[in-house]
Each structure stands twice: as C-alpha cells, then as structure tokens.
Specification:
Distance between the termini: 40 Å
Number of helices: 0
Structural class: mainly beta
Strand content: over 45%
Order of helices and strands: EEEEEEEEEEE
Length: 123
C-alpha cells in the first residue's frame, strides 16, 4: 500500500529547532518530487518546500533561510529541518508526492498525502 507518514512534530519555543521526517512505503522516493506543506487553523494549506528526484529544492519565502529539505533514498525518507522557529510556523505539517515532474508548491499538484504532524511554536 502506497503511503507517506510524517513524524517529528511537537512543542518548541520560539527560536528552537525541529526535524520532521516523511517516510514512504509502497514505493521508492528516488523517482519523485516530495513536498512539505502546512495548514494552520482557519487558513488554507500552503506549500513550504519541495525536493525533486535530482535534488533540486525550492522554499516558500516565509521559510527560506530557516528550513532545509533533504532526502535519504536509502532510508526512503525526506526530511525537513526547521530552525529559528517562529510562532507563525505553528501548523499541521504534511508531506505528499507530486503527481507529475518538476518543482511546485501548489497543493493541488500533489497526492498521497500523509496524516500530518502538529508543530507548535510557543513560549
């Protein structure tokens, strides 16, 4: 069964760090662009970052310079390292697989969504 599972969320103070993991099963991540998204209460889901099969990366302006996306094909996992966290980063974070090829942060271009992991940045 094709599945993506997120983990690593939690409660962190402003300025702190977290690493989110997106583990795939039922397919190999090697050939696909994987994206990270987030959704805060009352807001639309927004793209945060994605990484292509050739390790091209893109980031939203709101996280550029603070978040880093990486992949470990041997572990079939994509990571999102989040540093200098801010209260406005609080959201449920999801990973998903791009339907086609390339780099995009449009949620509608993705499928096989994980169940999400909560990130709360608060003092």
């Amino acid at each position: 069964q094709l599945q993506l599972v997120e983990s690593g969320g939690g409660l962190v103070q402003p300025g702190g760090s977290l690493r989110l993991d997106c583990a795939a099963s039922g397919f190999s991540l090697d050939y696909y662009t994987i994206g990270w998204f987030r959704q805060a209460p009352g807001k639309e889901r927004e793209g945060v970052s994605c990484i292509s099969a050739s390790n091209e990366r893109t980031y939203s302006d709101s996280v550029k310079g603070r978040f880093t996306i990486a992949r470990d094909n041997a572990k079939n996992t994509v990571y999102l390292q989040m540093n200098s966290l801010k209260p406005e980063d609080t959201a449920v974070y999801y990973c998903a697989r791009l339907r086609n090829w390339g780099l995009t942060l449009r949620p509608a271009d993705y499928h096989y969504w994980g169940q999400g992991t909560q990130v709360t940045v608060s003092s």
